[in-house]
Design a protein that fits this description.
Layout: H1 2-9, E1 17-21, E2 25-31, E3 40-45, E4 48-54, E5 73-79, E6 90-94, E7 97-103
Antiparallel strand pairs: 1-2, 2-7, 3-4, 4-5, 6-7
């Protein structure tokens, strides 16, 4: 998970993100002001999370930008925690706050495997 933490630190200063962890999974919270479900795409594949989001640029009639510091796009590629189950991921955006839930894979449970002997038929 330290790779994900490091990647979050490398996001642009204008992007705010939180990472939460429980025994069952992770929640990645990313602020995407102005982004909607229609303008946001999240893809989990090959051990990474790809986030693409954009905000609509609406300028009220009669106004023009004097200064513009908010980015229009976010394109981030983040490593998936090694114990996360990307296939069970879920994402939701509400008022520009994206939450990606990543369940943890079930830990390997020890299991006794029976060993069968070779068939003794045909031996004299």
């Amino acid at each position: 998970m330290s790779a994900l933490r490091d990647a979050l630190r490398d996001l642009p200063d204008a992007v705010f993100a939180d990472l939460l962890e429980s025994d069952d999974g992770y929640v990645l919270v990313v602020d995407l002001p102005g982004a909607t479900a229609e303008t946001t795409e999240v893809l989990v594949e090959d051990g990474r999370i790809d986030i693409e989001g954009r905000r609509d640029k609406a300028v009220p009639e009669g106004f023009e930008y004097v200064r513009e510091d908010r980015p229009l796009f976010l394109d981030a590629e983040l490593p998936l925690p090694s114990d996360a189950d990307g296939a069970g991921a879920d994402a939701e955006i509400d008022r520009g706050v994206l939450e990606i839930s990543l369940p943890k894979r079930e830990r390997d449970v020890s299991k006794s495997i029976p060993v069968d002997g070779a068939d003794d038929e045909g031996d004299a």
